[in-house]
């Protein structure tokens, strides 16, 4: 979905016209129409447009799929790199200690997906701290 489709969807969601959005932003209706039709890829007024549309600039530009104003920005996908390494892991008890510590940082009210994302993000740092415990 491009910026124009996102703006158009939000206009429909909150029930205002292009002309009303333009008036509130302080631009011409043709400026809003140009964004919607794809004639413009952005605007210096994007933050104002987003606020009026009750969303975020990140949603309008496609950095997140969630139209909520405080939605987290998606991290770009990184290309996959395959490497072969010999790995010496610490003891099972050391790993269990690491996992217990990681679980303590996860908010209790987090969803399963949120917990998984937090743990996945923290795992490399946690493993790097265990290197001194490896046999």
UniProtKB/TrEMBL annotation:
InterPro entries: Cro/C1-type_HTH (IPR001387), Lambda_DNA-bd_dom_sf (IPR010982)
Pfam families cross-referenced by the UniProt entry: HTH_3 (PF01381)
Any coiled-coil regions, as ranges: none
GO molecular function: DNA binding
PROSITE patterns linked: HTH_CROC1
Ranges where the HTH cro/C1-type domain occurs: 7-60
Protein's name in the database: Transcriptional regulator with XRE-family HTH domain
Organism whose genome encodes this protein: Sphingomonas trueperi
Species lineage: Bacteria, Pseudomonadati, Pseudomonadota, Alphaproteobacteria, Sphingomonadales
